[in-house]
Specification:
elongated, 2 domains, 15 helices, 9% strand, Rossmann fold, alpha/beta
């Protein structure tokens, strides 16, 4: 039997098929060849197939063993995430078969994988596989390449808690808006931080730029005020230390502080951010510490910001949350020197 997972353009000698003149990306081609050779998708197997890493990140990806190991680990996890996110069940099954990502396919040769699919998946035929596999692999490669471009992004620290029930919807909309920026979100385990983080993660999944390390949630082990931090999105770190030390650990990783509502703890985070020389963007319309910091920083903002950014600063206290969120996005973009995706 001719393998369904082999080169789709293989034809008898002497025949030229113009339809096989493709523009497949280097990663698409590399993943296709990896699927023929590999028996399981693991970081170790990817390290042993350096052409895949080179196709994604260039020759420098394999020069240093530590860099190669980190990239292989990221790529294995990202491929599994992207495949799990494929909505069409048949297309997802095709991707699983190409890269041997499930127990059904692990340890099997290409021929054995093909046989398993035909015998165990209702309605699955060789013809269906051949028709769809290139598009499935092309889309998978494109999504992984897009996620890789935004993998290493400047970290922003979200500081805040809800001041009332009405601000929960604002947190969700803020998370969606942050997904349009190439940033990494750092946040504590408060309900507000979790809502912003998960809304951002879900939007990133939708637009194909999700990588778990772009949403980092921190949980203090002794805390009794934890949000819902264990959905399968983002990374969760446990900090076994005091609240103040935990805040220093989080904020030392950040390049900007975004304030949202909040009380005394948020005020301490704002003070630490100022001590560390980080820009502070207070969404004043959410009340609490964010509003107080907005008023306290207004004179300095007017004196130092360009006129356009000063207008955005003033809009942080706009009664319409969408306007305040837009203003915050503009100020984050300005302070971090970013461009929206």
């Amino acid at each position: 039997m001719v393998s369904m997972l082999g080169n789709p353009c293989t034809r008898p000698a002497g025949r030229t098929i113009m339809a096989c003149m493709t523009t497949d990306s280097p990663l698409h081609i590399a993943l296709q060849s990896y699927g023929v050779i590999a028996r399981r998708l693991t970081p170790e197997a990817l390290q042993n197939s350096p052409h895949v890493l080179v196709a994604l990140a260039g020759e420098q990806a394999v020069d240093d063993p530590a860099t190669r190991a980190r990239l292989a680990e990221w790529l294995a996890g990202q491929l599994r995430t992207e495949i799990a996110d494929i909505k069409d069940l048949t297309n997802r099954r095709i991707a699983e078969a190409i890269l041997a990502t499930t127990k059904d396919f692990e340890g099997k040769t290409v021929t054995q994988r093909c046989k398993f699919v035909r015998e165990n998946d209702r309605g699955f035929t060789d013809e269906l596989y051949k028709r769809r596999r290139r598009a499935v692999l092309s889309e998978l490669a494109a999504r992984v390449e897009k996620a890789y471009r935004f993998k290493d992004t400047p970290p922003l620290f979200f500081a805040g808690r809800y001041t009332d029930l009405g601000t929960e919807d604002i947190a969700v909309e803020l998370g969606k808006a942050l997904s349009a920026l190439p940033i990494t979100l750092l946040a504590g385990g408060s309900d507000a931080g979790v809502a912003v983080g998960y809304a951002m993660a879900k939007s990133l999944c939708d637009n194909g730029t999700y990588a778990s390390e772009r949403i980092k949630l921190f949980v203090r082990t002794a805390s009794t005020r934890l949000g819902r931090v264990y959905e399968p999105l983002g990374d969760v770190s446990h900090l076994n230390t005091t609240p103040t030390n935990a805040r220093y650990i989080m904020l030392r990783q950040a390049r900007l502080v975004l304030l949202f509502g909040g009380g005394n703890g948020t005020a301490e985070e704002a003070a630490i951010g100022t001590e560390l020389g980080l820009p502070i963007v207070p969404i004043a319309t959410t009340g609490g510490t964010a509003h107080r910091c907005y008023l306290a920083h207004a004179a300095a903002a007017k004196a130092t910001l360009p006129s356009a950014q000063w207008r955005h600063y003033r809009q942080l206290n706009h009664p319409e949350p969408a306007v305040a969120i837009h203003a915050a996005i503009q100020l984050i973009t300005y302070h971090l020197g970013l461009e929206a995706q």
